[in-house]
Amino acid sequence: MNPYQGQPPYLHNVGFSNTAPQSFGNPMPMPGFPTMGYPTAQPGYPNTGSSYPQSSQGYPQAQGYPQQSQGYSQGYPQHSTGYPSQAYPQSNSAQGYPSAQGYPSAQSAQPAYPQSSGYQQPNQYQGYPSSNVQSHHAYSASPSPVHMPKSKPTVVPVNPFDPREDAAVLRKAMKGFGTDEKSIIQVLTRRSNEQRLRIAFEFKTLYGKDLISDLKSETSGKFEDLLVALMTPLPQFYAKELHDAIAGIGTDEDVLIEVMCTMSNHEIHVIKQAYTAIYGTLLEDDLRGDTSGNFKRLMTSLCMGNRSEDFHVDQSKAREDARSLLQAGELRLGTDESIFNAVLCSRSFPQLAAIFQEYQFLTGHDIDDAIKAEFSGDLEKALRAIVKVVRNKPLFFAERLHKSMKGLGTNDRQLIRIMVTRCEVDLGDIADMFQSKYGETLQSWIEGDCSGHYKKCLLGLLGLY
């Protein structure tokens, strides 16, 4: 019997009213894997200046601790500076944990999707993890890592941040006759998702009104949809997008592919928690009930959130997997989809990049061409999406943005989803890839395809309003 009975209605402002996760930034620790998210500076990280006693503090000598002249000569250094810095090695690569530099500071933090932000050009699999961590994972089995540029978010947490002042600005913008849309756009597009949720909390505290309800009553159309998306906690926004993609008649497989093929393990687990908290059912059950065949198996595998996230690249295993893929596809009559499923859903992204490179060495052509020849339909799209994400995630999203705006009409839902979810991660990189691939700026496409305050708000997320 399903332990989650009933299906509560979806509330846009689930922010501070139920058990759904608020962000990806404070995860439950995953065994054997560094904590993800962007924690604020916490006592206990070396070199933060807030953890260990300063030299003037030391350990008090009058409370039972021996004087320095009577100290333990063999074990404890004769310093009055508290814990010595030598006790904490500068490189922790042997233990598998990044050193202190791998934890972002409060100023540089972008509470978003840390592990998904790193990306690489084709055949540069060493550079997949973000550059501030990868240097601690140079293993002998792989060539020395290439230092890739950091991802470029277009929305970063504002500092200093005063949520009550922002709440007052929004209240003034919506009070009385008319609405000051410019003020609303400038506040909401220049704050991180977590900061927007804090503003909503203070807004209700100060004025006894729900901010999202006020925004909905003062705006309309696509502009309203965009503002509501900005005010929704990211895990719950993803959960709603997945639910709407599989609810009702038909399934929007493109949404399932975009979300399930690009998320890290931790992000998938948090989205699953949010999904169950909002809808009372399991995401895996709903995915399995609405898909079929090998595509259903692929979605189920991805939904487990159990991909290896080891930065180590094993070249011999990559060669072995490349041979397995070749034997399961091009060298046999028919295709053994289970081998492709197993390899592409369980190997780490850096390892997959090495596998694709070995495949090219073995066959003389690209793995993408092989997938196009061996598969069709949604399964082909999903497998090719994984290949693209492994090689260059910003380019994958740039292609999705282009597809949402080309031709007659605009897929506004897809446009809003990518702009809202990537602006704190790598929207700057996506815009660069868009221009390099299509020869026109993302800004010019948005200006040509959208209008009014909706257009201004999208440009605000690009940092251009």
What would you say this structure looks like, in words?
The protein is mostly helical and 465 residues long. The protein is 50% helix and 0% strand. The protein starts with 113 loop residues before the first helix and ends with a helix. The N terminus is likely disordered.
Features:
single chain, 465 residues, mainly alpha, 21 helices, Annexin, annexin, calcium
Helix content: 40-55%
Order of helices and strands: HHHHHHHHHHHHHHHHHHHHH
Beta-strand level of the residues, as a percent range? under 5%
> What structural category characterises the helix and strand content?
mainly alpha
Shape: elongated
As a whole number of angstroms, the C-alpha radius of gyration is 25 Å
What is the strand and helix layout of this fold?
Layout: H1 114-117, H2 131-134, H3 163-174, H4 181-188, H5 193-207, H6 211-218, H7 221-231, H8 234-246, H9 253-260, H10 265-279, H11 283-290, H12 293-303, H13 315-328, H14 337-346, H15 349-363, H16 367-374, H17 377-405, H18 412-422, H19 427-438, H20 442-449, H21 452-461
Helix pairs in contact: 3-4, 3-5, 4-21, 6-7, 7-18, 7-21, 8-9, 8-10, 8-11, 9-17, 11-12, 12-14, 13-14, 13-15, 15-17, 16-17, 17-18, 17-19
Brief overview:
This protein is mostly helical. It contains 21 helices and no strands. It is elongated and about 70 Å long.
